[in-house]
Specification:
alpha/beta, 8-stranded parallel sheet, 12 helices
Length: about 290
């Protein structure tokens, strides 16, 4: 299994866990909030931040956009969806800020126009959302850009994942195990799927989590996840659909610290006697074998 190169990092077995802070739409259309979230990810030690990009009139039907939905952007779902999308000038500001903070950024693009939009910023990779796993045309369009891909597998059967793998191929691809509920129930995380995906597809496999709490993400790493993605927020009580399934700055800092510690604790799998054990052995060991 070959690791996947994302920017200047390798993602795969034997490499440090690649940690992505999913900003998504938790910025609520506020550039000040975007920069605070990016800064929180940098302070925590994350490797990358991720956004979501949609061409609203392509992704949603006119009926869906007209549906009543009150927000500080207006009275319809369309008002909300358009209010959460940034223009080129705002993404240019995000790009410049991430460069100044020395952190990678990329996006989940939900349509071809959004791929073209983000391509202007020379991203190191793309993420394909679980909702798009069955969109063969969009999968192929991503591949035309010849960039590494993360493919999320929430709400997908093995047969659907098999087909997506046939469309995409296995080169420069990281699968992300995921349960697409917000927040996810612990009993529905099914983390044992991670080693199953590794065995079935022989590609790097990561974990995209939406649960409340951190310990399950650490369990995913022990089971073989080489990348972790968690939504971040400044406050889980903030307005927004994804806030409750997100991790606040102290939590993401603790998670990154614990992930790095688990990576060290895993070792190399070679049984040995450490020098630090020798005095204890001399004092306590019984028998001569």
């Amino acid at each position: 299994m070959q690791p996947v190169k994302i920017g200047n990092r390798l993602v795969g077995p034997g490499q440090p866990t690649f940690i992505v802070a999913e900003i998504g739409i938790n910025h609520n259309g506020d550039m000040k909030l975007v920069k605070q979230l990016i800064s929180a990810a940098v302070t925590a030690g994350c490797d990358a931040v991720k956004f979501q990009k949609r061409t609203v009139d392509v992704v949603y039907t006119p009926e869906e956009l007209a549906r009543p939905r009150e927000s500080h952007f207006g009275q319809t779902n369309g008002d909300l969806k358009r209010g959460l999308e940034f223009a080129h000038s705002q993404y240019a500001e995000i790009d410049q800020f991430c460069r100044s903070m020395d952190i990678i950024w990329f996006a989940s693009c939900w349509d071809k126009g959004s791929v073209d939009f983000v391509e202007q910023f020379n991203p190191p990779c793309y993420k394909i959302a679980s909702a798009c796993l069955t969109d063969d045309e969009l999968l192929r369009y991503h591949r035309q850009k010849r960039r590494p891909l993360f493919l999320s597998t929430g709400m997908s059967t093995l047969q659907q994942i098999d087909h997506a793998m046939e469309v995409l191929g296995r080169e420069d691809l990281v699968l992300m195990h995921c349960t697409s509920t917000y927040p996810s129930k612990v009993e529905e995380l099914n983390l044992k799927v991670i080693p199953s995906l590794i065995e079935r597809y022989d590609v790097p496999v990561g974990y995209s989590g939406h649960e409340v709490g951190l310990y399950t993400t650490l369990a995913a790493i022990v089971l073989g996840a080489c990348s972790v993605e968690r939504h971040i927020t400044l406050d889980r009580a903030m307005w927004g659909t994804d806030q409750a399934a997100s991790v606040e700055p102290p939590g993401i800092a603790r998670l990154v610290k614990d992930i790095r510690a688990v990576g060290v604790a895993m070792g190399d799998g070679v049984k040995r006697v450490y020098e630090s054990e020798i005095p204890v052995m001399q004092k306590l060991r019984r028998g001569t074998t």
